[in-house]
Amino acid sequence: MTNDVADAPATDGFQVNGSLPLYAEPRAVHSLTHRDVAVRLGAGDFAFAAKAPMVQITVDEFERAALDYPIVFFGDDHQPFIVSGLGLDRNLFVTEGQYAAGAYIPAYLRRYPFVFARDEGSDALILCLDHASDRVAVAGTAGAEPLFDGQEPAALTKQALAFCESYEAADARTKAFVKLVEELGLFESKQAHYTAPGSSTPTLLLEYLIIDRARLDGLPDENFAKLREAKLVSAVYAQIASQANWEVLPFKNQVA
User: Fold this and answer.
1) Which of 114, 132, 147, 204 is the most exposed place for a label (fewest CB within 10 A)?
2) What is the pTM of this model?
3) Res. 1: pLDDT tops 70
4) Does residue 53 have a cis bond before it (omega within 30 degrees)?
5) Residue of 81, 106, 102, 32 whose CA lies nearest to 208
6) 17 pairs with which residues across the strands?
């Protein structure tokens, strides 16, 4: 499913197939076009996610993410997201580019500015780099690591490939999880409202799905066994428990 960066399109004619939220200018990584490109290392600047009130996660992240965020299912494909803000353009966990100390940082954000994308002309996954990121620099810049050593991918590029491959595998497990939850009839529709300080009128924030505890408790033994056999029971309960975070989310607005 994935490919070596040497096989990626070598021109800027590469077109991403599908949307990549938070990635403004993804370009295919290739030794011909990125021989002089580097990426700054060190503490991550998460300013790119400062206006993201929701962030996609995988089922592998449910247990840890549930300690900090409400986890919801959203969209036609019921993709799981963490809710990180109470408005259209505010991530309460990011302040001046810094992520709240101790809070779980979703893998979707940790892989930035790298990402896998599909070329419109094929189904192959291609390693891309968001050139809109201020982490992208010219090779030789102090504190930045080059993407290539001659024609060969440098250590940073190999690490990015490995991380993105791991993420894609987790995303496949997530799709299987969602499919099973849907087949078992466990989803329930919900709405989130927020009343701003000084206002008496609640605002509709989000329409989403959750896993309904009553439906889970009412599952026949043979259906619950399907969750157990798929090793997904802990993820189900983590999503249910995460709903308690709606109560504390309004106060997650400072870097600890």
Assistant:
1) 204
2) 0.88
3) no
4) no
5) 81
6) 118
Q: Residue 85 is which amino acid?
A: G
Residues in the chain: 256
Structure tokens at 84: 């990180």
| Interval 13-31: pLDDT, tens | 555 555 789 999 999 999 9
- Would you say residue 164 lies in a domain? yes
What angle do the packed helices 233-242 and 221-229 form, to 10 degrees?
A: 100
Tell me the backbone φ, ψ of residue 99, rounded to 5 degrees: -85, 145
Cβ-defined contacts of 4-11 (< 8 Å, 24+): 4/153, 5/29, 5/30, 5/31, 5/126, 5/127, 5/153, 5/157, 5/161, 6/30, 6/31, 6/151, 6/153, 7/124, 8/126, 8/127, 9/119, 9/126
Provide the token pair at 208: 């989403």
The token pair that represents 246 in the structure block: 């709606």
Number of domains into which the chain is organized: 1
Write out the residue range of the structural domain in which residue 83 sits. 5-251
Cα distance between residue 37 and residue 58, in whole Å: 30
Q: Which two tokens stand for residue 158?
A: 């190999």
**Residue 205 maps to a domain:** yes
Q: Do 170 and 153 meet the contact criterion of CB atoms below 8 Å apart?
A: no
| Residue 89 pLDDT | 87
Q: Mean per-residue pLDDT for 28-41?
A: 93
Q: Is 256 within a domain? A: no
In 3-state terms the chain splits into helix, strand, coil percentages (rounded to 5) of 30, 25, 45
Q: How far apart are CA 53 and CA 55, in angstroms?
A: 7
- The token pair at 57 is 């996660």
Q: Decide: 108 and 55 in contact? Cβ < 8 Å.
A: yes
More confident position, 230 or 255: 230
